[in-house]
Amino acid sequence: MWQKSDYNIVVKKDGKFYAGYCLEMPQAKGQGNTRDEAIEDTKKAIILCISYLEDKRNDPELDLITVSI
Question: What angle do CA 28, 34, 40 make, to 5 degrees?
Fold first, then answer.
C-alpha cells in the first residue's frame, strides 16, 4: 500500500514553460505554464510511478528481490 512520503522536485524554466522532475524518481516528470502547474503535474507523475511500482511489486510473474543499501 502506498504511503505518503516526501519527494524533492526540481523545477526549471524551459522557454515559455516550466518543467519539473523528481530527484528520487527521475521517471516522474511534469510541466506547466507556471511553476505551480509544473509542481502539481510532477506530483501526479509521482503518484502514477508509485502505482506502477506497486503493480510490479504484486506481480506473481516477477522474481522480485528487495535489497537494503
Answer: 40
